[in-house]
Write a structure and sequence with these properties.
By secondary structure, the chain is of the alpha/beta class. It is 27% helix and 22% strand. The protein is built from 6 helices and 7 strands. The mean pLDDT is 95. It binds S-adenosyl-L-homocysteine.
Length: 213
């Protein structure tokens, strides 16, 4: 299906079937959009949504919500996925700040949270903007079900080290830690994100962890 894309990014998002509109209408539970009880997986900072839409097609048993706060990035993602709309009944973009997700779900309702190639915010004075800073981790803890998992991949070795320490200091348990995902045994089921393709083509090692609270 080819859709027309004209107007401002907000107008385009409002008309697109893959973007959730009027978040407030879901009374603090946007998972209602799917109309079923399948496990819900969320990605914060999805970019164009290539990773989560691929996951959604591969795993019809789950629902996938891709959070992205940049409307232009979502519009680009919408265009890339125009031909796949019919197959993506279990995928939606959410135009929202990850920090506000806490208002959009019931407590302890998510099965997984994914962070892929999150902005590193290397300066110490910006540390609180990192999506693995402890204020975000507290929110994830409230969002995840018991036993729910946080999956994190990054090319940035410093952000990875910071995140590992921040998680452990805040009582999260590591189920998996690798500094070189692509040459590890975990690479066989790995789907690459857009950033992951870019960085690994340049020969960069990719870090991955899975943590539970
Ligand atoms: N996950 C994608 C994109 C990584 S780039 C990939 O791996 O290819 C990081 C993305 O996160 C950018 O698109 C940026 O706009 C978005 N982002 C950063 N902070 C965010 C926040 N607090 N809430 C929602 N999106 C955020």
């Amino acid at each position: 299906m080819r859709l027309r894309h004209v107007g401002s990014s907000h107008d385009m998002m409002r008309e697109h079937p893959l973007v959730i509109k009027e978040l407030a209408e879901y009374e603090k539970d946007i998972t209602r959009i799917f109309g079923n009880d399948k496990p819900v997986h969320v990605e914060f900072g999805s970019g164009y949504g290539g990773y989560f839409s691929s996951m959604a097609k591969k795993h019809k048993e789950n629902n996938y919500l891709a959070f992205e706060w940049n409307s232009k990035v979502i519009v680009r993602g919408m265009k890339l996925l125009d031909d796949e709309i019919e197959e993506l009944d279990n995928f939606r973009f959410v135009h929202s700040d990850a920090g506000k997700a806490i208002d959009l779900f019931e407590q302890h309702s998510l099965d997984r949270i994914y962070l892929n190639f999150s902005d590193p915010w290397p300066k110490k004075k910006h540390a609180k903007r990192r999506l693995t800073y402890h204020t975000f981790l507290r929110k994830y803890e409230k969002l995840l079900k018991e036993g729910g998992e946080l999956h994190f991949k990054t090319d940035n070795d410093d952000l990875f080290q910071f995140s590992l320490e921040e998680l452990q200091y805040n009582g999260w348990n590591m189920k998996l830690v690798t500094r070189d995902l692509h040459s590890s045994e975990f690479s066989k089921d790995n789907i690459m994100t857009e950033y992951e393709k870019k960085f690994s083509e340049r020969g960069k090692n990719i870090n991955k962890l899975i943590a539970t609270k």
